[in-house]
Design a protein that fits this description.
2 domains, single chain, 0% strand, 256 residues, mainly alpha
Length: 256
């Protein structure tokens, strides 16, 4: 699947909003008018879930461009993480086109900020609000997880990246606790396990159990079922790591 197919998704719930406007700048240059027209005309023949999935993926690239440039640098490791994700799931052509979309997003940010330093930041917030209106809670959490993984891909999450993640989370109607939870997944540290469950180590055993039940409900992989097998698989891995954090806390407390 090439990212050229994403044009059809843009005509879906992204049309007319800030994401659609941004797509016009960064995707339009990749394809001629014939390709765009063809994809618009064939949109109605597609599985309706494809447009939803494609909108999710384009939204991920938009938000990724903001996270990657949070510290003012474009790290090779972070770009490579995104390229690998695209290549592994959609093939070489998709990776090349996705990489170019990211570069176009960086250039568009440069142009916008030259006129108004807060212009792109405001656009990201507006895009986040559009995402919040069209993706369910679980889908937004999965998008946030991908962004956290991008920030972590160079082995160091700086203050600017954490702040950018929180800004994006706020725009998507998520919380700072959601960000901390996603950043601590996969850690073997007990303190990190409590952050994954979004609770304090002073919480009672009953509070720990309740926190896990609430987290398991909102992160259940079935919440992203319409986004495709690859996204569902990533959600299953996230769910597994949440269970590992729970087991770590249960073991430390001797909770059966």
């Amino acid at each position: 699947m090439a990212i050229g197919k994403w044009i059809g998704g843009v005509i879906g719930w992204m049309a007319g909003g800030p994401l659609g406007a941004l797509a016009g700048f960064v995707i339009g240059s990749l394809f001629d008018s014939t390709v765009i027209t063809t994809n618009i005309q064939t949109q109605n023949n597609d599985d309706p879930t494809i447009g939803h999935r494609n909108s999710f993926l384009f939204s991920m690239l938009v938000m990724a461009s903001y996270i990657i440039k949070a510290d003012g640098k474009i790290m090779h490791s972070e770009m490579e993480f995104v390229r690998r994700f695209l290549r592994d799931n959609f093939g070489e052509q998709a990776m090349n086109e996705g990489n170019q979309i990211l570069l176009n997003l960086f250039e568009q940010r440069k142009r916008m900020d030259a006129v108004n330093p807060n212009s792109f930041k405001q656009t990201i917030y507006d895009c986040g609000q559009q995402i919040a209106a069209n993706l369910n809670y679980g889908e937004r959490l999965q998008l946030l997880r991908f962004l956290a993984m991008i920030a972590m891909s160079d082995g160091n999450v700086c203050v600017q990246e954490i702040e950018a993640l929180r800004e994006v989370a706020t725009a998507m109607n998520l919380s700072a606790n959601d960000v901390d939870s996603m950043l601590n997944l996969g850690s073997s540290n007990l303190d990190a396990a409590y952050k994954v469950l979004e609770i304090d180590p002073s919480a009672t055993d009953d509070e720990v159990k309740a926190a896990y039940r609430a987290l398991a409900k909102k992160h259940h992989p079935d919440r992203v079922a319409t986004l495709g097998d690859d996204i569902h698989k990533a959600a299953e891995e996230k769910f597994r790591q949440i269970n590992e954090a729970k087991e770590q806390i249960f073991k430390a407390r001797n909770i059966s």
